[in-house]
Amino acid sequence: MEITINCRLATSLASRMRDARAELARRWLERIAARVNLHPNAVFPTDELLDHVPLLMDHIADYLEDPADEITADAPVIGKALELGELRHSQGFDAHQILKEYELLGGVLFNFLVREADEIDEPCSRSELLACAHRLFRAVAVIQQYSTQQYLRLAAEQVREREERLRSFNRMVTHELKNRIGSVLGAGQLLEDPEISSDPARRARFAKMVTQNADAMQEVLQNLLELTRMDTDARQQRNVPLPRAASEVCRQLREMAQSAGVRVQIDELPDVEVNAGAVELCLTNYVSNAIKYANPAREDRWVRLWSRTEAGEGGCELVIAVEDNGLGVPEDARDKLFSRFFRAHGTVTGVEGTGLGLSIVRDTVEGQGGRAWAEFDGVEGSRFLLALPCRRSADRERRGGTPAQAEGAGPG
User: Is the CATH number 1.10.490.10 carried by domain 8-159?
Assistant: First the structure.
């Protein structure tokens, strides 16, 4: 049963905890970062979240001072605990790490109170001292409970959403591969016909059909492989500066651009960290599409990659754009661009494809808490964009951090 004696030592300890809340928050942050291989700037990636941490200290101090000031489900501190659970889910923490995070908080606060108690000249019985310790860890446990519950709820929703998406995606991919295999088999059987095999023009046409469908099936399988990589634990994903990610994409597509006579230009980009796998996957799709659909009638064919930050509905956003002066997209096809298996130029150009690339971009960006869309200023040319939530700046080299810290998780 909770002891409700008016303890003057508890009052003094609570007051000192409130005064030291900023320092206590810093100690907790550093211990989390060291334990889970995250840079401190990634533990609480926005100033707003970082400002909420001292609120936890205040409410724990309130309960330490007065056990009647129970931490209930409608208390403001519980709202912050729920936000923290949501953040940890987005960062790819597991349940053990969340429990460990609050164990670290309890340790930081307990060590602080032990030191302070020796300096306070207030009468206190042994039962009152034990009651203070009990209230401290009860307050931490209640906040931990709500953070963990929110994390587990979001994790369960994510599993259900992925299962449904996987079933739907499998149905569509199966249909696509079935049609492609049917085309290959049909063309192959026709090539065995002596009448066709003796006609070079017809033989070449059916051989091309086999090759094109085989290439399309290979692209489908490559896209499936990319999707499986994006579903890996977020803690295993690399964060890199945006300029490095953009340069890597252009390096991979250099030969493709040169053979198409397309000049790829990268504007000066902010030195902010992004999820390497997600951003490189999206930019590769955007830039390769811009190269594929370059306008052959233009002497100067170019693709430009640039970025900006802007205020969005949910706060600051990093917007990355790939702009070109190519064929553009017909107006009646623009609303369907990010739909699976849709190809805006499927009947206009000789470019083969599966129509999966932009849908993968959309799913990938939305999985990072962002959005993807396209803009058009006229009939020709296009601008494909993606927006990701801004994060607080982190030093590119982590200022001497360990390799694990340099490549720690954190939404990009």
Answer: yes
Q: What is the pLDDT of residues 203-249, one digit of tens each?
A: 898 898 888 888 778 777 766 666 666 555 444 456 889 999 999 99
Query: What residue ranges of the chain are covered by domains with CATH 3.30.565.10?
Result: 237-412
Beta-sheet strand order (sheet of 262-266): 262-266, 301-312, 315-324, 382-389, 371-375
* Helix 21-36 vs helix 8-19: crossing angle, to nearest 10: 70
Query: What is the number of other CB atoms lying within 10 angstroms of the CB of residue 106?
Result: 17
> Quick check: helix, strand or coil at residue 48?
helix
Concatenated DSSP letters of 88-106: HHHTT--HHHHHHHHHHHH
CATH placement of domain 237-412? 3.30.565.10
What lies within 8 Å, CB to CB, of 159 at 6+ separation is: none
Higher pLDDT, 33 or 86: 86
- Give the contacts of 164 (CB within 8 A, at least 6 positions apart): none
